[in-house]
């Protein structure tokens, strides 16, 4: 019939090239090995936010709380709990940074450099690579909306970005504090007495952003280029705190996503151009997995994705459902209910880390170690330094998964498989090839369409189009269970030959 046509070969090829094929991208490659990144957060030492490694120009009289023996003791204790990586904050609230008379970053304080060198040496001694989180909470929102300054959400609200940019960029020789006072008087919305962060202008002023990259970020990356005691760089903790709207801080205050993405992308490019071997990410927060899942961190030059999740039920989606182009780890996780409860903490954390493993995330880092005497609900240790029950669960998780010196599963029992073809038209016949290792007693294949198999390397036919996540579960002779998932896209063959009938098809046929 005239309305029925067949698409050309080139058209089919072009269409197939537009289909994303997701391969083995759920593991992070660090030092030429695949890793499940199992670790603990130690954001700052002994609760000394913003002055634990270097001095802070906003309150130099506080001094520097750096204590090598404390760091060493905490590193050793975290290792005993099963951690193989530690996440530490670096320049929170502008700690250790120097500023010129414009309020732009001009360098890193010598004391911070010395303590960083010592801390990197300590990481090597304790065999605990650091996941460095560079900055946090650049602007924040109105404290009337109950955002905690202590938690790193430094307050710098404003109504009009253009007005703020004009004030910051055309203040002549005014000092930083004078400029802040000038802005405060001009924008009555800003309450008096709020603590500001000198890094607030990075998101809206090109010169400020460039000074930070050239005088702090690049020197830091260059100094430790190729250093194996750095696992990766987290460009910024929870950018959502500084982004207005429902996918940010739920307020009208802050920059838009385009401004934040510009900043993150520029930082990622600067890091990779300075040290091409250095892994880079950016930890999404405030919305659990949603912003990573929905693509807000795509195409920024990140080597892996990172989101933070706080839930009591431990639920996590499958990594494969995100359809990402790289691995994804959970940089912070913990209970949601704000109460000190050993049972709740232990249950939530155990569920979260086991679900991170079984749902094919690249790792997880618990929030947080803290310090003896801390009363924050997520603290892992008691006031006397003894472990809370969750610490033994962390230890058991590590032992069950056979981590090596850096958290790499030694795969005493490893579930793995390949398949072919990866893409095709329904009905699609797929050969699954088991590549698991270890002493295995049985196999369970779940093909994602409701069908299963107990064969070692089965063949399965997908009858209808769709996206499928086949999963292999192997059970070891000791009863240990390990899983592995993949992604398959099955296409509708009729999509290429079906065409709508023209409105005048009968008349054309009659002719």
List keywords for this structure.
511 residues; alpha/beta; Immunoglobulin-like; TIM Barrel; eight-stranded parallel barrel; four-stranded antiparallel beta sheet; 11 helices; globular; disordered N terminus; disordered C terminus
Shape: globular
Uncertain segments: 1-23, 140-181, 183-196, 404-411, 505-511
Strand percent estimate = 15-25%
By CATH's scheme, which homologous superfamily of the largest domain applies?
Glycosidases
First-last Cα distance: 13 Å
Q: Main sheet?
A: 8 strands, parallel, barrel
Strand order of the largest sheet: 3-4-7-8-9-10-11-12
Structural class: alpha/beta
At the first level of CATH, what is the class of the largest domain?
Alpha Beta
Domain count, please report it: 3
Q: Average pLDDT, to the nearest integer?
A: 81
What is the oligomeric state here?
A: single chain
Q: Can you describe this structure?
A:
It is a single chain. With 511 residues, the chain is α/β, with parallel strands linked by helices. It folds into three domains: 9-19 and 413-496, Immunoglobulins (Immunoglobulin-like), CATH 2.60.40.10; 33-149 and 200-400, TIM Barrel; 158-193, no CATH class. 26% of the residues lie in helices and 21% in strands. The chain has helices spanning 9-17, 68-81, 110-126, 161-169, 176-186, 206-223, 257-274, 290-293, 342-358, 389-400, 505-510; strands spanning 28-30, 33-35, 37-41, 85-89, 97-99, 105-108, 130-136, 230-237, 280-284, 305-310, 328-334, 363-366, 417-420, 423-425, 428-434, 440-446, 452-453, 459-462, 466-468, 471-476, 481-485, 488-491. Strands 3-4-7-8-9-10-11-12 form an eight-stranded parallel beta barrel. The chain has a four-stranded antiparallel sheet with strand order 17-16-20-21, with no helix packed on it. Helix 2 packs parallel to helix 3 (110-126) and helix 9 (342-358) packs parallel to helix 10. The longest helix is centred in the middle third of the chain and has 18 residues, at 206-223. The two termini are 13 Å apart. The relative contact order is 0.12.
């Amino acid at each position: 019939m005239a309305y029925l046509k067949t698409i050309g070969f080139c058209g089919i090829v072009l269409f197939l090239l537009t289909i994303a094929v997701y391969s083995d991208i759920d593991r992070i490659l660090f030092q030429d090995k695949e890793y499940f990144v199992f670790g603990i957060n130690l954001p700052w030492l002994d609760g000394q936010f913003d002055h634990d490694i270097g001095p802070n120009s906003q309150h130099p009289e506080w001094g520097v709380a750096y204590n090598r023996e404390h760091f060493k003791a905490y590193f050793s204790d975290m290792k005993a709990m099963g951690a193989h990586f530690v996440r530490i904050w670096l320049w929170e609230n502008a700690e250790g940074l120097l500023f010129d008379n414009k309020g732009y970053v001009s360098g890193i304080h010598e004391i911070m450099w010395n303590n960083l060198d010592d801390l990197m040496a300590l990481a090597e001694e304790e065999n605990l690579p650091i996941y460095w989180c560079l900055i946090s909470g650049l602007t924040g929102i109105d404290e009337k909306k109950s955002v905690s300054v202590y938690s790193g959400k430094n307050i710098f609200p404003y109504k009009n970005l253009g007005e703020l940019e004009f004030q910051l960029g055309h203040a002549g020789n005014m000092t930083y504090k004078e400029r802040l006072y000038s802005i405060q008087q001009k924008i009555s919305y800003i309450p008096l007495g709020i603590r500001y962060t000198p890094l607030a202008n990075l998101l809206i002023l090109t010169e400020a952003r460039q000074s930070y990259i050239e005088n702090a970020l690049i020197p830091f990356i260059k100094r430790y280029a190729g250093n194996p005691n750095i696992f990766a760089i987290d460009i910024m903790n929870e950018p959502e705190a500084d982004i207005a709207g429902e996918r940010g801080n739920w307020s009208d205050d802050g920059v838009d996503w385009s401004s934040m993405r510009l900043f993150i992308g520029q930082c990622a490019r600067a890091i990779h151009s300075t040290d091409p071997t250095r892994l880079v990410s950016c930890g999404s927060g405030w919305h659990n997995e949603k912003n990573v899942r929905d693509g807000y961190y795509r195409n920024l030059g990140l080597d892996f994705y990172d989101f933070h999740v706080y839930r009591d039920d431990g639920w996590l989606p499958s990594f494969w459902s995100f359809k990402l182009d790289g691995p994804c780890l959970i940089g912070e996780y913990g209970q949601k209910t704000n109460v000190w409860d050993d049972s709740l903490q232990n249950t939530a954390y155990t569920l979260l880390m086991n679900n991170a493993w079984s749902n094919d995330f690249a790792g997880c880092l618990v929030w947080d170690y803290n310090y003896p005497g801390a009363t924050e609900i997520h603290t892992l240790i008691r006031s006397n330094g003894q472990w809370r029950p969750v610490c033994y669960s962390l230890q058991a998780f590590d032992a069950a998964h056979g981590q090596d010196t850096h958290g790499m599963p030694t795969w005493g029992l490893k579930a793995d498989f390949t398949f072919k073809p990866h893409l095709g038209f329904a009905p699609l016949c797929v050969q699954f090839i088991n590549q698991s290792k270890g002493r295995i007693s049985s196999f369970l294949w779940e093909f994602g369409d409701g069908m299963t198999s107990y064969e070692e390397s089965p063949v399965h036919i997908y009858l209808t189009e769709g996206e499928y996540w086949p999963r292999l579960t192997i059970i070891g002779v000791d009863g240990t269970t390990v899983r592995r998932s993949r992604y398959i896209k099955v296409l509708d063959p009729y999509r290429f030959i079906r065409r709508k009938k023209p409105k005048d098809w009968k008349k054309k046929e009659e002719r």
